[in-house]
């Protein structure tokens, strides 16, 4: 096992906990889980986001992605439609309500991050950004 692995696990776990949905006002998240929010973000980036693409981007099976999209549809945050280029493909896009939800969730996340980042001096911010970038790159191997 690599040196400091235990510390990495603890720190990442603590960071995830600090930014978890439970920290925010429950009304902000429209009853969505973190997986729901990530899926909604992913489908908002593409015009024709297929179920296969959603599954790939989230690291889910296609049936797992389907369950997430089902939840988003029931809440009126996303909608399915046939692809304009290939009628066999089901595409998912956010509804107006879904885009508004993302705007609110992103706004809350940015405000929270700003409160934290303001407490860190500028040189350390750059070190943290570089370290986080390196860490994320290492996860994509």
From TrEMBL:
Entries under Gene3D superfamilies matching the protein: Winged helix-like DNA-binding domain superfamily/Winged helix DNA-binding domain
One Pfam family matching this protein: MarR_2
Domain spans labelled HTH marR-type: 1-137
SUPFAM superfamilies with a match to the protein in the record: Winged helix' DNA-binding domain
Domain of life: Bacteria
InterPro entries linked to this entry: HTH_MarR-typ, MarR/SlyA-like, WH-like_DNA-bd_sf, WH_DNA-bd_sf
Record's protein name: MarR family transcriptional regulator
Organism of this sequence: Desulfoluna limicola
């Amino acid at each position: 096992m690599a040196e400091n692995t235990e510390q990495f696990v603890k720190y990442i776990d603590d960071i995830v906990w600090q930014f978890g949905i439970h920290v925010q006002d429950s009304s902000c998240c429209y009853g969505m889980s973190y997986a729901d929010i990530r899926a909604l973000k992913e489908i908002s980036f593409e015009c024709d986001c297929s179920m296969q693409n959603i599954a790939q981007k989230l690291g889910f099976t296609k049936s797992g992605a389907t369950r997430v999209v089902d939840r988003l549809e029931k809440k009126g945050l996303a909608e399915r439609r046939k692809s304009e280029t290939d009628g066999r493909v089901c595409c998912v896009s956010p509804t107006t309500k879904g885009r508004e939800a993302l705007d609110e969730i992103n706004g809350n996340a940015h405000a929270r991050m700003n409160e934290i980042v303001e407490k860190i001096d500028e040189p350390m911010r750059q070190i943290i950004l570089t370290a986080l970038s390196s860490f994320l790159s290492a996860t994509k191997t």
